[in-house]
Write a structure and sequence with these properties.
DNA polymerase, domain 1; 2 domains; 17% strand; binds FE2/S2 (inorganic) cluster; Ubiquitin-like (UB roll); 178 residues
């Protein structure tokens, strides 16, 4: 048995230890949000969060994950309310959608470590391949999610609205404070 945690739940897989994590997730756990694209570590469709790292699930065995905490797209939020998921809708990122979960999981890991990533940071962190070419919308969505997480933007369902900067107030000593 190979034991680790997936989306907050303990799991024990009675599979060959060299089974790729991708197949354990998809076939044994029915977590099919994690996609199989290339199988060679090039496309990023299979990216999951393992202990706060973006990892290609097609390239790592379940044995190598023993004891770790794995999060898939299904575990990112209970109700698709993660800022990235909201931003994906607001920016209308999805075309065919096949790359979405890998892109979102890679972005989620990026935002754990970098609260305000630049376009260059995003390009470096997300080497994912999108055959539909939605890269500019992905970049906008990640920037938007970062602002949501920082509280400078609010989601209104299918759109995101920039919140006005708080009104300047005068303190008793006449220094302007926000
Ligand atoms: S399926 Fe894993 S990187 Fe393409
Ligand atoms: S939206 Fe189609 S592969 Fe990215």
């Amino acid at each position: 048995m190979t034991k680790f945690t997936v989306n907050g739940q303990p799991v024990a897989y009675d599979l060959a230890p060299d089974t790729p994590l991708l197949w354990a997730l998809r076939d044994a756990s029915n977590l099919t949000g994690t996609k199989y694209g290339c199988g060679t570590g090039d496309c990023g469709a299979c990216i999951v969060d393992i202990d706060d790292r973006a990892v290609h699930a097609c390239q790592i065995s379940i044995k190598a994950v023993e004891g770790a905490f794995v999060t898939t797209i299904e575990g990112l939020s209970l109700d698709r309310s993660h800022p990235l998921q909201q931003a994906w809708l607001a920016e209308r990122v999805t075309q065919c959608g096949y790359c979405d979960s890998g892109m979102i999981m890679a972005a989620a890991v990026l935002l754990k470590h970098n609260k305000a990533p630049s376009d260059a940071d995003i390009a470096q962190a997300l080497q994912n391949v999108c055959r539909c070419g939605v890269y500019p919308r992905v970049r906008n969505a990640i920037q938007s999610a970062a602002k949501m997480m920082a509280g400078s933007i609010i989601s209104t369902g299918n759109s995101a609205v920039e919140t006005p900067a708080p009104a300047a107030t005068l303190s008793p000593d006449n220094n302007v404070k926000r």
